[in-house]
Amino acid sequence: MTKKQTTKEEPLREDSGCVVGGGADQSEYNPTSNIVKKASSSSSSSNRKTSNKKNKEQNEDYDETDEALTFFYKPHTLLVLGIAIIFVIYFAFTNEQSTRGSVKSGLLGVCATFLLFSMVQMRDGLFVRPHPAFWRVIMGMGVIYLCALVFLLFQSADDARLIMKHIDPKLGLPLPERSYADDCQLYTPEDPTSNFRNLMNTINDEFIWAHFFGWWGKTLLLRDSILCWVLSLTFEVLELSLAHLLPNFHECWWDHVILDILVCNALGILMGVLTIKYLKMKEYNWTGAEKKAEKRSIVFRALKQFTPIYYDEYQWDILSSWKRFLSVVVLVIMISVIELNAFFLKTLLWIPPPHPINIWRLFLWCFIGTPGIREYYQFAADRSVKKLGTMAWICVASLIAEVLLCIKYGGAEFWQIPTPPFVKYPWIIGTTLFTLSSFYYFAIHKRRQTTKSKTN
């Protein structure tokens, strides 16, 4: 099938299994028939007919559900409820535990119940692959995470650390301060184990792989290599600027420039770009049970559900308008803050870097961020979208809750640490120049160009 380039005037279509047309608040997905029903809008009837025609053409390749998978695309609310009741009865009446174990089991049961409700009752979002129910569960997990952050906001730092200790007895202990700039000597011939001991110690650190896979994933989410490079350089600048607050932000020059930017981040972005090109160039024909084509095994047809129907690059077009520009700037700020929160939260809650809680948080942000960024992009790019999508709203709310948590638990401590002049003044000058240049471009330069184009 031949893919058409999406323009700013056209409705944004489905990619990675997301519904064609408007956001989660504008379209409704019927998983049984794979038909998208557009909600009524204030646009003219001719535009609606054109949009519906395009949607029909884009959906004609996958408007039939695979016969072998039809069962999973039909509502089974009573069946799911019955199975859930059986599990609840079994675990609630047969397991004799201590008070601590009972509380843990009860909380897990509450979370499982809410996720079950999310799976069978919450509305569909933009994504439908591998299954709409999967993304409904992800939405439920995002809500649970947001509620957990709000709960911690009402606790003191000591009580929050005590809660972490109840979750895992290994937690609740102050973290040893670690700096990566204690010895920046690259070549160590005097060391008996290795001539590049400092380099090998840094390479064996868990953050190296986090950099590589993290930027691979972020490239797949943002689908714009230039924006990824801006984020990569921005975070390195933030690390240098906040090194006086967190000791582990102190890194050697070769760690910042070579390992982080030129090796790990660059390779991650490169792999992401190659993956995007592969997904864009690969021809998919997910028509379900094909009548003319050779029938594949049910395992193969099930695995197809984990591949995207369409995968288009995002055209952020940052200099096209004030809205686009501010949307991208806000997105860069939000993603950078999410990354910084990982370091501040583990420091304030005394969670060691290799602990599974840190890994779970990263995976959760990856899953809720996937549809969240898609909805945010549609909000920024499609003029007909006036409301932020559900997953994007959850992402923004969780980000704000994390920031408030860091301010409450560490604000008093961090405010006592003076900001070095070589950090404070460059930020003041840089922010001022960035603001003035942006204002000049959009308020003066771009307006002049628009006036000239109209007169010509």
From TrEMBL:
The protein's topology relative to the membrane is:
Multi-pass membrane protein
Query: What keywords were assigned to this record?
Result: Endoplasmic reticulum, Lipid biosynthesis, Lipid metabolism, Membrane, Phospholipid biosynthesis, Phospholipid metabolism, Transferase, Transmembrane, Transmembrane helix
Q: List compositional bias (Basic and acidic residues) regions by residue number.
A: 1-16
Quote the biased-composition stretches of kind Low complexity, using this chain's numbering: 33-49
Single Gene Ontology BP annotation: phosphatidylserine biosynthetic process
List the InterPro entries.
PSS
Give the primary localization class. endoplasmic reticulum
Superkingdom as given in the UniProt entry: Eukaryota
Q: Where are the transmembrane segments?
A: 76-93, 105-122, 134-154, 226-245, 257-276, 325-345, 357-377, 389-410, 425-444
- Pathway in which the depicted protein is active: Phospholipid metabolism; Lipid metabolism
KW DNA-binding (keyword) present: no
Where do the coiled-coil regions begin and end?
Answer: none
Q: Which residue ranges are recorded for the region named Disordered?
A: 1-61
Pfam families with a match to the protein in the record: PSS
Descriptive protein name: Phosphatidylserine synthase
Organism equals Cavenderia fasciculata (Slime mold)
